[in-house]
Design brief:
binds (2R)-2,3-dihydroxypropanoic acid; 323 residues; Rossmann fold; 13 helices; seven-stranded parallel sheet
Length: 323
């Protein structure tokens, strides 16, 4: 049976094809060149829809879910994180929420490692200097930063993405510490990773990479106190969710040289970036591109679409987070 599927943002064709081949009427609210749909756009498009396919830019709260009416059966988020969705409100209305785990781990780990290398070796600063026509000669003390190879990497949240980062780090001869709620015997055996309390990890690591989901327990997990435990040559990388790090405290730590540098892909109030961070040279700022490879975005769109098709067939979708 053909149902109305609202797709909030233009997604790769791989996903649209799956929805159309299943016979559904697909309405895309904003194309690639447009900003994300507003709350108002969602309110007017949703009545009568059976499915809503979202991305991290849409805040799906009880109001939006209520506006949808009784036909809405699934909110399928094209992301592994789903902190943009009020899952409890969805559950109360009998709406399934799904995500896209497992297909973006390696790509996001590449991004984390790219930021780690770029922040340590001052790539952004060097490129800005060169483009400004201010690179006059090779310099013995110019743009030097700490080595990455052979150092200690602390991973906060050793899930699939954290493990993929650890595998990359092992290729650089790094020692791995991790902080996680449960012990990870597989990673300990495969990657010689050592479990650590958060404070010890911050003290003992040269590089810290955050891979924990955002929830009330992890909001501002890294604040002024935690940053003060890191060393003056330490580098912080965040590719998880912005609010896990207190951005103002991080800006202060970077400005005061409490830590050496940071590499960020996510921010507390995207797309806004703390103005102080924008002025600092020792932070590499990426616009939430952790999963932005062609192949991975195709896979994410396909998984999100498959979740929709399954739910509209009356099945439990493969990636339900609230069933
Ligand atoms: C996710 O999947 O949660 C990312 O942040 C979007 O790529």
């Amino acid at each position: 049976m053909s149902e109305k599927v609202i797709v909030a943002r233009e997604i790769p064709d791989a996903g649209l094809r799956i929805l159309r081949e299943a016979g559904h009427e697909v309405i895309t609210l904003s194309d690639a060149s447009q900003p994300p749909p507003s709350h108002g756009d969602l309110f007017s498009a949703l009545p009568g829809a059976a499915a809503l396919l979202t991305t991290v830019t849409e805040k799906i709260d009880a109001g939006v879910l209520g506006a949808a009416g009784r036909r809405l059966r699934i909110v399928s988020n094209m992301a592994v994180g789903y902190d943009n969705i009020d899952v409890e409100a969805a559950t109360q209305r009998g709406i399934t929420v799904t995500n896209t785990p497992g297909v973006l781990d390696e790509t996001t780990a590449d991004t984390a490692f790219m930021l780690l290398l770029a922040a340590a070796r001052r790539l952004g600063e060097g490129e800005r200097l060169l483009r400004a026509g201010e690179w006059h000669a090779w310099g013995p003390k110019q743009l030097v930063g700490p080595d990455v190879w052979g150092k200690t990497l602390g991973i906060v949240g050793l899930g699939r993405i954290g493990e993929a980062v650890a595998r990359r780090a092992r290729g650089f001869g790094m020692k791995i510490l991790y902080h996680a709620r449960s012990e990870k015997p597989g990673a300990e055996a495969e990657l010689q990773a050592e479990r650590s309390e958060l404070e010890d990890l911050l003290r003992d690591s040269d590089f810290v990479s955050i891979h924990t989901p955002l929830n009330e327990g992890t909001r501002h997990l890294i604040g002024a106190r935690e940053l003060s435990l890191m060393g003056e040559s330490a580098v912080l990388v965040n590719t998880s969710r912005g609010p896990v790090v207190d951005e103002a405290a991080l800006a202060d730590a970077l400005a005061e040289g409490t830590i050496f540098a940071a590499g960020l892909d996510v921010y507390e109030e995207e797309p806004k970036v703390h103005p102080k961070l924008m002025e600092l040279d020792n932070v590499v700022l990426a616009p939430h591109i952790g999963s932005a490879s062609i192949e991975t975005r195709d896979k994410m769109a396909s998984v999100a679409a498959e979740n929709v098709v399954a739910a509209l067939r009356g099945e439990t979708p493969p990636n339900a987070v609230n069933s």
